[in-house]
Input
Amino acid sequence: MKKSPATSENSDTDAARLIDARIADLGDWRGETLARVRFLVHQAVPEVVEEWKWRGTPVWSCAGMICTGETYKTYVKLTFAKGASLDDPKGLFNSSLEGNTRRAIDIHEGAQIDEAALKALVTAAAALNAVKKPARSKKA
Output
């Protein structure tokens, strides 16, 4: 049976290949930044799964989505799916601050990444995903 494109793109190996290609295609500071962030995500959560979603967005997951790695002309954006529920003592979140769920980090050219703080956020996001919410009971 032939895999559908969506299935193919979401296998960890295919996603890794597509992320590698994105990094290479960028060929500038954005590719270097995305590669560095990817490395830090893997250091923080070695069991992380890489995915390729929404026609070209790298996604890192572990028991649910941790974050995405989007590239734009002037910045690289890391969007944390449950960022509003995470402590951010170093103040890395600098975008999408008004929402009730997500938070993002916009990294501009020349910006220094606080690697320890980023790894702590990634670890906390994976831990939050691992917490099972109690099932709702149906009232009669």
